[in-house]
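User: I'll paste a sequence; please echo it back and then give the predicted structure.

Assistant: Echoing your sequence first, then the prediction.
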Amino acid sequence: MTSAAGKESDDGFEYRRLKIDPHLSRSATAAMLSIRAEFTGWELARSLKFYDGSRLVYLRRRRTSGLLPDLSV
């Protein structure tokens, strides 16, 4: 799994792109995304699945003035 740095947008959200390896199961991916949602405030914005089985997931969260924690990859 790889991630791209958070990108800010004019709609009040910041975005993060995650590339999920094809060997990672759907349930493991769901658990990972649930942990990110619960503890760091990210929500699923878009998900793409490719022919090789890899996934590209876009997460978003509202921009705040304070710092939110993030999970290291």
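The first strand starts at residue 2 and ends at 3. The chain has a mean pLDDT of 83.
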